[in-house]
Amino acid sequence: MTASLYRKTSLITALAAAISPIAAVADVCQTDNPNITPINVVQGSGFSSPKANETVTVRGIVTASWRSESELGGFFIESAPTDTDDNLSTSEGLFVKTSNHIGKISPKDTIVLTGVIQEVDELTTLTDISELTTCGSVDALPKATPFTLPVADKNHFERIEGMRVELSSSNNEPLTISGNYNYTRYGFVDVSAGRLWTPSQIVQPGEEARELAAKNELNRIQMDDNSNKRDPRPLPFEELFSGPHNSLRTGTKIEPLVGIASQFNRRYRFQPIETPQLKAAEKTIDYNAPEKAGGTLRIASFNVLNFFNGNGMGQGFPTPRGADTPDEMKRQQAKIVAAIKALDADVVGIMEVENDGFGEHSAIRQLVDALNESGSVTYSISEPQAQRIGGDQITVGLIYNKDTVSASSHALVNTAGAFAWGSRPPLAQTLTDQDTGEQFTVVVNHFKSKGSCPEDEESPNSNQNDGQACWNALRLKSAQQLSKWIAEKSFPNTVLLGDFNAYFMEDPIQYLSNNGYYNPSKATDYSYVYDSQAGALDHVFVENELKDNISGVYHLPFNADEPWIYDYRNAEFYEPTPYRSSDHDPLVLDLRFSASGM
Predict the structure, then answer these.
(1) Fewer Cβ neighbours under 10 Å: the N or C end of the chain?
(2) CB of 549 within 8 A of CB of 589?
(3) What are phi and psi of 588, to 5 degrees?
(4) Alpha helix positions (H), 124-197
């Protein structure tokens, strides 16, 4: 330690600081000061401090300072080498909550300070500082402690709370931005070793899903922007922006970096000291479906995130769902139109459009009119013999390119059983491929969501804690009823698509896969990111006899990885592009009927 000018500041009175004898200051700074409580004793080996609510005097080296109210309102200290213990279960770091009134504090300063230990949002914190003495400065900060994700248990997070650490990965996966839901509002993202997957996307519901959920919890930490500011501007971590939309997408790979381990409300955090850097891209992500080959029929599925148009004449805002103003609706419409055009599909199944019929002022009519005005393709709407489909606020829809396919009859809907309430009624339209003359039927679906659980915990639709969340029994019943209905109607060459609100390994998807339908996607395809975990709620199936006619299936990453602030609701970041046109990625299937000579 390099000797420097001692200075002592009493927060009780500036006068006391001015007359404090140099000798007394030197006594405070002695390494054998009997009044010092080591930081590792303050931290203890548990999840909360054994010294909580006690007044203590601690000594440490300032490792990072974010003292302003717009920052963290304090600084971090770490034990000098002479004060550390040999117990790996106790942390050597501590957060000090203070203000600017204590004078200048800089990294590398060694300080002795007195205050009260409290658990503030579960972070062990020294508060109510009554006295602080600066004892000099060191030539270099303590070496950053290596810290790798994933960890074996939560104790590993607690052991380095408040310490300077080097964050990296130990499982041969790069550090990855796994979640950005709170990024634009609170300035933090979730980081993990590799992408996190929704458990029931890649393993069996039940014990396997519970085990993976527990492992995911041990493979994530919040990377914060070192600020308490809400709605930070400019958006933090600009060095990590990538992709054609130049944003901080989930799935972004980053280099290891140094920062301080922290905690906030049951989540462990990482406060970067170094500027995060993008890891060199391993390959270029393809954001667009390949060009449609000649003789290929393209069928797409797209959840448009509550497209409502008020009364269709510029009034009726805010709507029950979707846009709050006419301007928001226009921005939403422009993004959806751009996304559908980018799909270059002959048939598009749509979910979450306003259920207000098919008339001149209906939401689906307005959307299709805008789509047709914007390009060379003319889409027609598939209509059932009903004014609206079921009684929900939202419904499914189907549109088709009338130059490549044709419909010879009205669409059919099923409003019975599971589709009378909960799952939206499916819409089935038989079409003819004009290139080959082959008939095929597209059935558009939107099963009951996982939220708003039944009040009756004994209900089979309550959360069974198997990874499938609420209403799984209803979704399974919907799949069974759907399969039976299709069989009764003898639809030709059936293609099922839509938002099934079930992940790849869950009961409804597996039921369809085991009862006459082929799912060409892989478990590692995804269309949605929830709680920093990726998975596919959107699926496309073909009846087994059609699987050899598939020439491609594409999950297009327009939306799920993008921060939500780029959608239609925020004019500051809005662009009339496909990116964040919804919270679901579109899904595209290419079929070639001539392949089997049918």
Answers:
(1) C
(2) no
(3) -125, 135
(4) 155-158, 183-186
| 21-78 confidence digits (pLDDT tens) | 444 566 889 888 999 999 999 999 999 999 999 999 999 999 999 998 889 999 999 9
The alpha carbon dihedral of 175, 180, 183, 184 has a sign of positive
CA atoms lying within 13 Å on the CB side of residue 378: 3
Integer Cα distance of 23 and 27 in angstroms: 6
* Cα–Cα distance for residue pair 500/471, rounded to 1 Å: 12
Contact in structure between 546 and 310 (CB atoms under 8 Å): no
From residue 312, how far is each of 181, 217, 237, 308, 395 by CA, in Å? 32, 46, 40, 9, 17
In one-letter notation, the amino acid at residue 402 is: K
Q: How far is CA 175 from CA 153, 226, 404, in A?
A: 19, 19, 46
The per-residue pLDDT for range 205-247, each reduced to its tens digit, is 999 999 999 999 999 999 999 999 999 999 999 999 999 999 9
Residue type, 330: K
> What angle (nearest 5°) sits at the alpha carbon of residue 551, between those of residues 548 and 556?
130
User: Please, which residues have CB within 8 angstroms of residue 471's CB and are 6 or more apart in sequence?
Assistant: 422, 448, 449, 450, 453, 454, 461, 501
Q: What is the mean pLDDT of the chain?
A: 93
Cβ-count burial of 372 within 10 angstroms (0-12 exposed, 13-18 middle, 19+ buried)?
A: middle
